[in-house]
Design a protein that fits this description.
Keywords: Hydrolase, Lipid degradation, Lipid metabolism. This protein is α/β, with parallel strands linked by helices. The protein contains nine helices and 15 strands. It has one domain: Rossmann fold.
Length: 354
C-alpha cells in the first residue's frame, strides 16, 4: 500500500534549478465551468475518537462581501513545502469558493471526498469546485494523522508516520461524515437529497470509496481516481455504479520489485453493478488531482517536469477532471444520460475505454 502520495510527495528528489532566490508568487487554479457561484465553509466533526476537519462546498446565491477561500492555509502549505525541501515563498492559490456565502435554494445532490495518503482535503479542488458550480454540495475531509491541515484554534496538523492509517480508517471517517451530512448542509443553508449521495477519492481515498460502498448503502455512486484497490479486509464487490479512472494503478499493474500490485484486476473480476474503467493515457498517479496543474507553476527545472506530469498536458488533465466526474455523477445521481461515458470521445483522446 502506498504511504505518501500527496501533492508534492516526490519533490525532494527534484533539482530546483539555479538556486536563485525565489520571490513570493501566488499559484493559480483554473476556474470552474458551471453556472453557479460557490460558497465554502470549514467545520469540525467528531466521531469514533477522531476529530475531523471538513470543508463544505455548495452553490451560492450571493457571494458579495464574502472573501474567497485559499486552497490551503499558510501554515499547512508551509509545512507541506518544507517537508519535501521546496522553498516556502509560494502563496496558495485562491479558490472559487467564497467563505460563508449563503447557499442557493433547492434540494441538492451531495458528494463526499477522501484524500490520498499524506495528502489533504484540498488536493482535488479543481474537481470539487467544478461539481459545486454545477449544483452539488461537496464535503471534503481531512483524515487525522494522514493529512496537512489547520484546526480552528490555529494548531497545525501533519501526517504522522508513526501512526498506521489504512483505507478502512478513511472509510470509517467518511461514514461519520455521512452521519452528520444533513446537519452540515443545513449549517450553510443548503438542503441535500439523502437519496442522491455520491463519493470519490484519490489513491488511498479511492480505495476507501469502494470500502464505504461495501459497508454503507447511503452512497449511491462511487468514483476512483487511480486507487490501488487493496486493503485488509479486502475490497468486495460493489452493486451500485462505480467508475475507475486509472493512471498508474491499472488492471495490468502487478506486484514486482519496483511496483505494487494494484489490486484493480481482482476488483474488476468481482461481480458488480454498473461499472466503467477508463485509463488516462500518459498520466502519472498525481495527474488525476490538482498536482498536474500546480506543479508547472513551481520553481522546478523544465527538464524534470515529465517525471512529474508524464506526457499528459496540464490543460488536458484539467478538462478531463472537470468533465468525467461531473458526467458520472450527473448520470447516476441526477439520472441524466451522458454520452461521454459510452465510449471514446474526440475531445478527450487521452481517455481510453478498457
Amino acid at each position: 500500500m502506498i504511504t505518501r502520495r500527496s501533492l508534492l510527495a516526490a519533490a525532494a528528489a527534484v533539482p530546483l534549478g539555479t538556486g536563485a532566490p525565489v520571490r513570493t508568487a501566488r499559484l493559480t487554479l483554473p476556474a470552474p465551468t458551471g453556472p453557479h457561484r460557490i460558497g465554502a465553509v470549514t467545520r469540525q466533526v467528531a466521531g469514533h475518537g477522531r476529530e475531523l476537519t471538513v470543508s463544505i462546498w455548495y452553490p451560492a446565491r450571493d457571494i458579495r462581501r464574502h472573501p474567497v477561500a485559499p486552497w490551503l492555509p499558510a501554515a499547512p502549505l508551509r509545512a507541506l513545502l518544507e517537508s519535501v525541501g521546496l522553498p516556502v515563498g509560494v502563496a496558495a492559490p485562491l479558490t472559487a469558493g467564497h467563505e460563508g456565502a449563503p447557499a442557493a435554494a433547492g434540494c441538492l445532490p451531495a458528494v463526499v471526498f477522501s484524500h490520498g495518503a499524506g495528502g489533504h482535503r484540498s488536493e482535488t479542488t479543481i474537481v470539487v469546485q467544478e461539481l459545486a458550480s454545477h449544483g452539488y454540495v461537496v464535503v471534503t475531509v481531512d483524515h487525522p494523522f494522514d493529512s496537512y491541515g489547520e484546526l480552528p484554534d490555529g494548531r497545525l496538523t501533519v501526517p504522522d508516520d508513526d501512526v498506521s492509517i489504512t483505507p478502512w480508517d478513511h472509510a470509517h471517517d467518511i461514514r461519520v461524515v455521512l452521519d452528520g451530512l444533513k446537519h452540515l448542509a443545513a449549517g450553510v443553508g443548503a438542503t441535500i437529497d439523502p437519496h442522491r449521495i455520491g463519493m470519490f477519492g484519490w489513491s488511498k481515498g479511492a480505495t476507501a470509496t469502494a470500502l464505504v460502498m461495501n459497508t454503507d448503502r447511503r452512497v449511491r455512486a462511487g468514483l476512483s481516481f487511480d486507487g490501488p484497490m487493496q486493503s485488509q479486509p479486502p475490497v468486495a464487490a460493489v452493486d451500485r455504479p462505480f467508475m475507475l479512472m486509472t493512471a498508474e494503478f491499472t488492471e495490468d499493474t502487478e506486484d514486482t520489485e519496483d511496483t505494487e500490485d494494484s489490486g484493480v484486476a481482482e476488483f474488476l473480476a468481482l461481480p458488480h453493478g454498473w461499472q466503467l474503467d477508463v485509463h488516462v493515457d500518459g498520466a502519472l498517479h498525481g495527474s488525476l488531482c490538482d498536482q498536474q496543474w500546480l506543479i508547472p507553476q513551481l520553481p522546478i527545472n523544465a527538464d524534470d517536469l515529465p517525471g512529474w506530469l508524464g506526457t499528459l498536458a496540464p490543460a488536458q488533465a484539467v478538462r478531463i477532471q472537470q468533465a468525467y466526474p461531473l458526467a458520472f455523477f450527473d448520470q447516476h445521481l441526477r439520472g441524466r444520460r451522458q454520452r461521454l461515458l459510452e465510449g471514446p470521445s474526440r475531445a478527450f483522446p487521452a481517455v481510453l475505454f478498457t
